Amino acid sequence: MVLNKAIRRRIVDMTVEGRDGHIPSAFSIVDIINYLFSHVLKFDAKNPKWADRDYFILSKGHGCLALYPVLHEKGFITDNDIKLFCKAGGILGEHPDFTKVPGAEASTGSLGHGLPFGTGIALGHRIKGMSNRIFILVGDGECHEGSVWEAANVGRNQKLGNLCVIVDWNSSAAQLMPFDNLSEKWAAFGWNVQVVDGHSEEELGKAVRAIEFQSVGVPSVILAKTVKGKGVPLLEGHGPWHHRIPNAEEYKAIMEALS
Amino acid sequence: MTAKKIRNQFADTMLEIGKNDPDLVVMVGDISHGILQTFAKACPGRYYNVGICEAEIISMAAGMASIGLYPVAHTIAPFLLERAYEQIKLDFCYHGLHGNIVTVGGTFDYSNLGVTHHCYCDFALIKSLPNTQYLFPGTAQEFDILFKQAYRNELLTVYRVPEHPHMQEISASAIKVGKGVKIADGKDLTIVVTGTQLKHAVEAKKALSAGGWDVEIIYIHSIRPFDAEMVRESVQKTRRVLVVEEHNVVGGLNEDVLRAVYNVRDVQFHAQGLRSFVHSYGSYNDLCESVGLSPNGIVRSVQEHFKKG
Predict the structure, then answer these.
(1) Interface of chain B against chain A, CB under 8 Å?
(2) pTM > 0.80
(3) pLDDT at residue B308 above 90?
(4) Which A residues, 131 through 170, put their C-beta within 8 Å of a C-beta on chain B?
(5) Which residues of B fall within a CB distance of 8 Å from A118?
(6) Strand B70-76 relative to strand B24-28: parallel, antiparallel, unpaired?
(7) Which one is the CATH code of B6-161: 3.30.2350.10, 3.40.30.120, 3.30.870.10, 3.40.50.970?
(8) Which CA distances in Å does A31 have to A77, A123, A204, A230?
(9) Which residue of B21, B48, B54, B59 to mutate against A (max A Cβ within 10 Å)?
(10) Which tens digits make up the pLDDT trace of A70-109?
């Protein structure tokens, strides 16, 4: 079963109109992002800096085409913002810009920054005596970066129980490093580990509800098993579609698959 | 003039500010842990000896800044500024976030530890990023005054804390971010100098006066923002300028001086700085002597590169 077909169609349209975009990366995480914004995160789209909000950082910034339509649907950004994706005068580029995009809690793109930045937000809220929750979505390929593991080490040792990492485990990482035992790695760093189907709202919900968010506690990681390009067989897997714009014929086939 | 270690002043200043400012958070990479215990005790929950992970410390500090805290990241200069440069560039500067980075072990203060522990390209690295300040306090007093002026503004400020104070008396009222300090008047040659080298420049002035050189000394503790006006006014008078700095000449203070005087006619110029790695060992003074950053070296530089009349 394929969820969020309408959002997926919008991702394709934005890619075609903006002449840029990573469709399969976005399809891999769109179900996670939409679930978080629809059922988990506390936010006020009209007041994006609301002090009591939960934080969501898309650390794998090249998946931003999954974030922008959700931010649009929830009221953070406008129709015009979407129209101007990757166009002069717009605020939406191929990686989210914290200084421009309401709802983007960090500027990302270079991999391995979102989680370290997020550990500061998590520890900072403890210092301020606040109980906000911090969710950070990283790629499994991103977990090649050493900075991810510096942050994992610090997150556990500083007992950042208000922090939840979600790994988009679509096996991109294993293309280059087949020793892909993410469960053991995160467990070895002392995090609470859950493995779920990242395209199942039921499993995502169950995993989030199982986490006891605490100002001082053990941080959690949800390893979300996903499919790159999920929802359109033409796009699925690790082939040439990573950073490609569909032509007219391909566009038609993709849209038919998402109808 | 007391010879108080500037690093000890760093700890004292953190304590004084931390008692009154609940937003000040100090994070270190297992450096200065002992002297910061007074801050840690007085400000519980706002001191972290994070670990040997400089990139993480910088990113974490930026994350804290994003929610309104005023972080101070502290450890050895090359690890914070060079290893974690992308974190500085992206997590602080791209985000437009404020914060403070206090380094020790700049240039070759850790003289016997070799090139891995040296740092002499940091002016260039930090100056070239938007939304940054670079301060180089040469005494405990300067650190205290400059930190209090800068730590809560909207910029990322780097403070290079040298091991050896320059030991010159400077009026507290003259110490301001962005302002140079006129140490001595002269009419033949302007020496623009920063950091511990001020001590050497003052000694060199004495030796040079015996040879008929009347040297003006301008001391720069504020690398960025830079007091171009004071330098230009001086060079308009002397038409000769020697820049003395513990930094690579590429991207160093001397380039700011050149920009300041580019439209002053007939200026003689030389930069006395570093041009490569410093592979030698010995004391700080030994290394200074080996690269011409000493009273003798400054005198030689004047004799070789400047002509009177």
Answers:
(1) 25, 45-46, 48, 50-51, 53, 55-56, 59-69, 71, 86-87, 90-91, 94-96
(2) yes
(3) no
(4) 146-147, 150-151, 153-154, 157-158
(5) 63
(6) parallel
(7) 3.40.50.970
(8) 19, 28, 9, 10
(9) B59
(10) 999 999 999 999 999 999 999 999 999 999 999 999 999 9
Number of Cβ within 10 Å of residue B175's Cβ equals 21
Give pLDDT, residue B2.
64
Pairing of strands B132-135, B70-76: unpaired
**Tell me, which fold does domain B172-305 have in CATH?**
Rossmann fold (3.40.50)
Please, what sign has the CA dihedral across residues A29, A30, A31, A37?
positive
What domains appear along chain A, each with residue ranges and CATH number? 5-257 (3.40.50.970)
* B132-138 average pLDDT score: 98
Give the gap in angstroms from C-alpha A101 to the nearest C-alpha of chain B: 12
pLDDT at A242: 86
Q: Where in chain B is the domain with CATH 3.40.50.920?
A: 172-305
Q: Which amino acid is at B211?
A: G
Q: CA of A48 to nearest chain B CA: how many angstroms apart?
A: 13
Q: What is the ipTM of this complex?
A: 0.97
> Which among A99, A123, A151 has the least Cβ separation from residue B64?
A123
Q: Which residue in the set B60, B69, B95 is minimally distant from A154, CB to CB?
A: B60
For residue B219, list its beta bridge partners.
B181, B193
